[in-house]
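Problem: given the chain below (126 residues), write out its structure.
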Amino acid sequence: MKYLVVLVLLFGGANLFAKEGHLKETSFSEVKPLIGKGKVMFLEVGSDICIPCQKMGKLLYQVKQKHPKYQIYFVNVRKGREATEQLKVMMIPTQIIFDTNGDELYRHIGLLSQEEVDGLFKKYKF
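Solution.
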């Protein structure tokens, strides 16, 4: 019993700390109706246990803190597999930018640098 409590505390506590400073997770069912509603959207598709995804989550969290009005969302494929099919995601992390009409403007697989992210937000006029 002691071991069970220790395991729960270790893994549960680690999960709590891992979420701090990361982009908030939003279900695809919440994000989908917002695509094409007059604002450019940055969609990060990944997983909470994927190391590159966690790095992107930290970077995008910082952007969101500086620019709270930017439409930036993280969809966790472990909790919503329908997103991978509907968005045609083959690997994670994948970043997708949609224009104000919901058309895909940009897609990237893998990590982006801070400079690349800054350039995307400038180029696509968030």
